[in-house]
User: Fold these one by one.
Assistant:
Number 1:
Amino acid sequence: MEYGTPNSVGMARLKQVLINDKHFNPERLNAILSNDAHKLLNNYFELAPEQVAADIAFDEHGNYIIRIKAVSNRVKIMGILP
Amino acid sequence: MARKIVITSGKGGVGKTTVCANLGAQLAMMGFRVVLLDVDIGLNNLDVVAGIENRIVYDIVDVIENKCRPRQALVQYDGIPSLYILPSAHSYNVGKVTGENIKQVIANLGVTFDYILIDCPAGIELGFHRAVFGASEAIVVTTPHISAIRDADKVVSILNSYNMTGINLIVNRVRGDLIAGGEMIDAASISEMLRLKLIGVIPDDDGIARFSSLGGAVTAREAKVNQAYAVLAHNLANGTDFVFDCTEQYRGIWGNIKRSLKRRLN
């Protein structure tokens, strides 16, 4: 049970609803983001797709916090133009 | 070059059509050439809100099907020479109309008008996308209720995937007495939550009910609402961010008395 003026309770409920909606809306976003991150990082590192993981979280204001973790043990040899 | 602005909300019944008609009237009274485009095909109401329902000869579907020229389908609003309405079809067979069709109609009208206000259907289905497709800017209309704000947030997410040059916010049916008493979410907080620029705050007023019965834009008799729409039109035309203060008359000692009386009378 929340206490306060109807305005403050309404604001708190609204914030919670909007944050929850953002949690459930981008269902496949993690997978798509991991895939794209793998494509990018694979240009520079030896990486298998399962070595890249993306995680999307939310702060108390509803902002997205995006964390991408990639583990590789080898850097690709960069070609140098003559 | 016309500004092509879709007026949308997500939730139905928040006052999109009323806002469209009155904003159009205010812009036209400022000297702009304005056309209101009803894209709510099958559930059209802009004609009734504007009070021109008995003067319709052709509609938007006739224009799309080349049965008439766009100019022939336009209905001039009584008393405001530079305000026109392109009514929607009242038939239910709307499957043939595409977003590309609407975009073409908008492009044709863009040559003649300064503002094209597109009245979007409620929801986020095909009709919504059809209306949004030809627009370059959007105005999201909401009321200060959680359900309407939530739907507005979803609509904003979808609008962000279109190439809009601007998405602005109007908060409609604001009760100054409830905001002053801390009983209703205020427009600035809604703007902050949705991360949209607030360009209009329209008070809840009995004048709107009168206007709805009579048909036509709000008049000077509904001074408060009229003033709010004038501020909104000024903001839209000039890029300013003045906000109509709905709470002014409910602040201070006299304001408290007014609020108490209003509560008792209700």
Note: The first strand of chain A starts at residue 52 and ends at 58.
Number 2:
Amino acid sequence: MIAPIPVSLLVNGEPIEALVAPRLNLADFLRETLKLTGTHVGCEHGVCGACTVRVDGEIVRSCLLLAVQAQGSSVETIEGLSDSGEIADLQAAFRARNALQCGYCTPGMLITAQDLLRQSPTPDRAAIREHLSGNYCRCTGYQAIVDAVEATAKTRAEQAA
Amino acid sequence: MTRPTADSLSVLDRPNSYIGKTVPRPNLDRLLQGRGQYVSDLELPRMAHVVFLRSPHAHARIVAIDATAAKRLPGVISVVTGRELEAVITPWVGVLSHLKGLKSAPQRAIAVEQVCWQGEAVAAIVATSRAVAEDAMEHIAVDYEELEAVTDMRTALDPSTPVIHASLGDNLAFERAYHAGDVDRTFAESDAVIESEFVFGRHTGVTLEPRAVVADWNAAEARLTIYQGTQAPHMVQNIAALHLGLKESQVRVVCKDVGGSFGIKVHIYADEMATYALSKLLRRPIKFVADRVESFNTDIHARDHRCKGRIGVKQDGTITAFEIDDLTGIGPYSMYPRTSAIEANQVVNLVGGPYVAQNYRARARVVFQNKNVMCQYRAVGHPIACSVTEGLVDLAAARIGMDPVEIRRRNLIADDGYPCASPSGMKFEQLSHHASLAKLLQMMDYDALRAEQTALRLRGIHRGIGIASFIEVTNPSAAFYGVGGAKISSQDGVAVRLDAQGSVICQTSITEQGQGSESLTAQIVGSVLGVSMERVRVTLGDTDNTPYGGGTWASRGAGIGGEAALQAAKALRKNILDVAAAILQSTPAELDIAGNSIVSASDATPRIELNELARIVYFRPDTLPPGIQPELMATRHFVPRQYPFAFTNGVQASWLEIDTETGFIKLLKHWVVEDCGTIINPQLVDEQIRGGVVQGLGAALFEKCIYDERGQLTNANMADYLVPMSGEMPDIEVGHVVSPTQETELGAKGAGEAGTAGAAAAVANAVNDVLRPFGAIITEIPLTPQVILTALGRI
């Protein structure tokens, strides 16, 4: 079964129709077919979290999902989340705290952090560390990332109050 | 109000200086929005993809390669063997002349006749996509005659062990012996001599973006453009040209965003050389991106050492002598061009370095084996030297019943004892071991922590404190590589120019992999010029468009590239003031630049904005007085000459808990005090330290490339090779002591490797602090639960 299969899905709100090889994973589909290179590929076996995207509101590792499995779904990548402004405050906190060095883990880290903040508005540091524990960062040692997520949670809570 | 004249102010105290201030790195939004430009992201017209068929054997003779079936698959452009590629690229030998006796065998871009480690490439498959190339790879038949693999470094030199490269005669790559003072007599006169063997797990960098290169040979221009995530673009240019038979002017190396490096991306790898050659051979752009399994099998490994150490001590705590016998296995080749003898050489240079004792004997042997190559990785040799030294110091303290802090107080070189030299001849300009230790003890509240430890132990909770002092090599001069004949520049250059709207363009030869090279350059240039940082644009990573220089490695970017930036900006500032004086009918001494304007030096009154000055210079030079030729661009280079290395120092402490039932270690807190001289951006320095510490903590607790006796790497994936994740890592508190180097006006030394240098030693000492009441001592990392439980006699 190697004949291309038609898929239709939403990517960052834009309707996409494409013919894809059945074996093509979602990460490669986003990067190579749609040229959305903000989704990074680090390990290609579901450990490092660099390829994290949102599919129908849930975070997934796009290297572990086939593009054909995204049929009918709404996929959101770092480019979409940046343009919509949804994580602008989180990005600003990362910038202020230097919570990124090489930046390769950053898109996945931001999407995972936003997932936590949507589920749990005021997580403590242990909860932040736990939620991010599937996203590998070799540069920062994580503390600055935890600080930035914690600061964003606090600001959002104050604004909501 | 009168102000001091502008020239009497150093850049450190000019008004509105960015030096010493936390400012966000420029252009971070690009990375935050997923709009960086990593080599993995790059696509060029007609670009093809290469994958490498790699040897499944650690040591074998290649009898035959049959690629007939693979070549027939649709989308396959070419299958190239080592023999075929030899016509395009010459072999290399990774030796340096100042490492006397270092030898290695010629290494080829793709193996010819013999494969020497599991993962060495035997054929390149070039296709229209990586997937097609990988499909084709399955159809290549290689007939191997398996040879006995040399895997154990301890028996590599035995007469009964096969010699990997017959032409070399034996498996010894390098040996260095050193003796200072009188170690035998000193040991004889000591109250105790303690001996132990320290064992380090072979580990690797695991950069999140794997090694990636796009090589683009333009046959019409006769020019090769290499897009590569590298720390040293000019070094890559030199090597590629040399082995492809080109002039350096025919090779351009471009390095935009890099997904982590840590020393992994400062070397020349065979598969990268093959990619350059394939582009030339096939006359089209070729892309190679290692996958994760390839990364584990081919990215350099490091730290596979077994080091026997001895320390002499007197009952009053005086350390009398150190002795080491270090053995390391580096794989089948010395890496190119930096060689694989540097790490062992550094161990010899650094052991005992923080201490007064001048009696020191060392031997280091570097042997070949049929495993992946080893070479320089963040903090080269330091973690080994530090773990051996600090492990021995703690053993000595325990033997004479002295607190680990007290024995260090009594033996660390006094802060007013500089300049001085270590027993291995390392020159220290100014270190601050005692001030650093004092600050560390205050930050961690050492006495309270000891009391807490004692109280908890009564309740069956086993916590430990570990301390490790360290020194770090930074700002290397030509002494590192240049004197050995390598074309690796130790100087860096910066060009600064004022543009037509009064903004500043700055080109630097240092590179950026996330450390903040761009930021520190903009901070220095902005401060010296009196221009706001938003107006300073920094270009890096392009051999066509930056001055010639070394790049970013060995903690040299801020200290060397930063000083070049400072001097270039000073020169431009003088040129601007000369023009301003002509325009304003004043003198340069009466003027200054502040807030993007020429101002009066005496009272800071704005006189003319820089954009107006630039407008006159570029568009109305006819209005300038006769004879004035403005030069709104200046270039300066810098290299350290007075000291071969600008040593830094620091001290780390670990506070951890061991579950004696499971052997699990919980890191509770980590402290670092370090002295990197002038701090350009405190936040960037702190985050370099933290990231470095966590890299060292990974080595201490988790990371190890596990080879079996046949030379097979058994855990070449991220599920089995464990790296530090956020859940296991502690918060890290960082403090500073500041002893600027007097060799530069900036005074900055390096900070990139200090964290990694001492982290594992602090953890190991803390673990032994826990285990000592159980009568157990561990001198091995990683400290896995199995190692802990074995030491406790539970398994």
Note: The first helix of chain A runs from residue 26 to 33.
Number 3:
Amino acid sequence: MQQDAASLKITRDGEILQVEFTSRKILDEGNIAEIGDALGALIEGELRPRLIISFAGVDHLSSAALGTLIMANNKIQGREGQLRLCDIAPQIYEVFLITKLNKLFHIYPTIKAARESLQNHGRSPFV
Amino acid sequence: MKQMQIQGKCKQNGQAGLPPASGRWCGLEIPSTLSRIPEAEEAILRQCEKFSYTDRDLFALKLALDEAIANAVKHGNKMDSHKNVHIKYRVTSRRVDVVVGDEGPGFNPANLPDPTDDGRLDCPGGRGILLMRAFMNNVVYNPSGNSVTLTKFNESPRRFVSRNVAFG
């Protein structure tokens, strides 16, 4: 199932929601409030949100965007959900390293790896 | 957006360790609205592209401009539409200098907490100055803290070619 909210492309795969940005520069200061509202509504619509945010094609990120991701993560944690980030370009990943937010977020190289991580989370190794 | 060329403001930079600056200062003003930030950034980045700045330089500069101008709009001018953000910039083949000033009372950047402390990682704000300092070669606030000067060097190996083209 696919739906679009603001500048996000949202795809549901079972219990997992995959979020992609529809514009390369969507995380500019001027646009981030809209993204934050859309993410917030998405999270509040789930009992235990399991979310993957893909940064494929994103080539810019401000500290306001980081703040929006942190607020989304806090909301998800508050609902005992899980958040994964993936497909982050090297220069954007550098922003996560400088701010040490790579310690806060679970970051995966690909959406496939992020999805596998969510599917295996909390599952008994004997199942 | 008001744009002007500021004559007579060009001078050699006296800061130790920085390449010499030359060239003409340009100035622009934007109202305290986040949606007006991209046009100010684009005016400066367009100049940089003429001098073969690398993609990495442009990424760094856009990031730092985003942070500096957004801070001026949000924290300096408190989004007051009657107040403007004042930007001066000078782009040469070797370096970019940008001064971003607001009409607020200023602040002391030394008083800000470290956003990389483990206990503060889940706080949404307070990373703009950290990023400016990480991506720029020099970041200097004026004594009252309502104006910041950003300096970024051109890392492109082609910068000298561009200079010859630009200045003959």
Note: The helical segments of chain A are 32-44, 63-78, 90-98, 111-120.
